[in-house]
Amino acid sequence: MIFKLLIVDDEATMRKGISNFMDWDSIGCEVAGTASDGLEAIQFLRHNHVDIVITDIKMPEADGLAVAKFVFENLPDVKVILLTGYADFKYAQTAIQYNVSDFILKPTNKKDLFSSVKTAQQKIIAARRHTSFAEEEFTFLKDQLLQELTTGPFSSELEERLAQFQLPLDCYFIAAFQFIPFENDISSLKKIIAEEKQNTYCYRYNNLMITIYFSEQPCESVPSYILDSCKEIAAITFALDSRQAAAGISRCHSGAASFSAAVSEAIHALNLNFYSESNIALFSDFSNCEKCDLTAENSLDLFRFESNLNNWLFDDASCVLSHMIAKFKSNFINSQDAKNICAQIYYICCRVLIKKDGSPPEAVYLDRIHHSSDIFTLEQAINQLMAYTKEHFIRTIGGQNRLIENTIKYIHENLSNPLSLENIADHLHISSSHLSRTFKKTCNESLTEFINRTRIEKAKDYLAHSDILSYEIAELVGYNDPAYFSSIFKKYTGLSPTDFRQQSKL
User: Residue 357: enclosing H or E segment and its boundaries?
Assistant: First the structure.
């Protein structure tokens, strides 16, 4: 810390001696300026920052006491050191009422002057520490009050405390900021908002930064200056800390009683920001959206996805993923829920690849899912995972992959027709024995077992999602005898077709 000095004396020799021939750098000071009388000094102080004033007491026009009085009344943080002759000492004592830091008798020596300046420095540092502590305590109590307003019921006691802290919640908007990556110490972000934005106040709530934008009058739409402010904050945080910022903005609210609701709106909008190509989402744009629970549908989609992968039906698996992402977009599923479902897709891919004696996808694919800033980057992460899984699935199988792929494709395309080892081998123009050995070795089950399992999986889908009669389903999946179909179905599922349909409707 460098302390700025102002040297005031009507004697030019004295001014030059103090300002030019004293090693001020050695005690952390520099001379900001000099003045030849009190009027010149006061004029300098009006327009320049000074920490310590060293002034002679007797000067023409305006003396040192006039300078001390001006400082006392206008610049309470500035310390004054008076230079006085012995004969003027009693006169100088009247300056005590102006809180003068020290008196030095002329002729002045370096030791006494440096000692007096150091004492003034210590007083300034102590005062600044006290002020800083008081401000920190005040800010802490104010933030604590806003936390209570956010989470607890409104009361008259809270309203009284608001008045004490001069928080006018007559008319306001709330913006909830999320920063990625998040750091526990967000004081720098608070400082950015406090310094760059007028008529605002911000505080931390969990891992969010809540900013209050005070408004002079109610308005239905979010004013452009608030939108611009949010964009600037996002740009500044990225430039300074390389952190991505997203924001959700509430509707306009009046009164402290609705503060909690306003914060909830801002957080809700922030969650839905996931589905916006902008980094700012407005609650008013989503206020008509109803919360949608797709738990059962998602579970079924995940089942279908895994089944398709196990059966080499990569296009069908990709269709399932596209369908899921489309549902997320149309129903504005909570971003964390969407990421959790996609994380399950990652673990399904791991399970399938390991079962095929392959290595699971790298953890980077899971990281991309969890760190997706919006639905578009999440969709991209899932597609990349799918591409990796398909590539490594086929690569794991080795040189036989094309034969197996064609076999499985033929089975699915002809599920309602008679299927046997022989007619499939004829279609592929290979011997039945070679097909049987290769399929068993590659897929860890016989061709007949695979055909039956595939038919039953397709039948389960029909039973769960259509009103087609059981005997008609039997024909659709290649069983001409309904009784035999029922027997095979129960063998694989433990239930009759009728019982399975009833359970799937629950």
Answer: none
Of 371, 401, 431, which marks where a domain is finished? 401
How far is Cα 432 from Cα 422, in angstroms, rounded to an integer?
A: 6
**Count of alpha carbons within 13 angstroms of residue 86, beta-carbon side:** 1
Which residue in the block uniquely carries the two structure tokens 């012995």?
86
28-51 burial, b at 16+ Cβ within 10 Å, e below that, comes to ebebbbbbbbbbbbbebbeeeebb
Q: How many separate domains does the chain show?
A: 4
- Structural domain includes residue 136: no
Q: Is-contact 277 204, C-beta < 8 A?
A: no
Q: Could you tell me the two tokens for 143?
A: 């933030």
Residues 323 and 394 in one domain: yes
Contact 204, 210 (CB under 8 A): yes
Q: Which two tokens stand for residue 466?
A: 């259509």
CA–CA separation, 466 vs 461, rounded Å?
8
Residues 67, 79: Cα–Cα separation, whole Å: 11
Out of 229, 257, 286, a domain closes at: 286
Rounded to an integer, what distance in angstroms lies between the CA atom of residue 71 and that of residue 29?
19
Rounded to whole angstroms, how far apart are CA atoms 329 and 325?
Answer: 6
DSSP code, position 211: E
- State how far the alpha carbon of 175 is from the alpha carbons of 31, 166, 254, 409, in Å: 46, 20, 15, 53
Phi, psi for residue 46 in degrees, rounded to 5:
-65, -25
Expressed as residue numbers, the domain containing 429 is 414-504
154 in a structural domain: no
Assign residue 499 the CATH number of its domain: 1.10.10.60
Whether 330 is covered by a domain: the verdict is yes
Q: Is the pTM of this model over 0.70?
A: no
What's the pLDDT tens digit per position in 259-282? 888 988 888 888 777 776 677 888
Are both 315 and 273 inside the same structural domain? no
- Chain segment 222-258, per-residue pLDDT in tens: 988 888 888 888 887 777 766 778 888 999 999 888 8
**Bridge partner residues of 55 (DSSP):** 8, 82
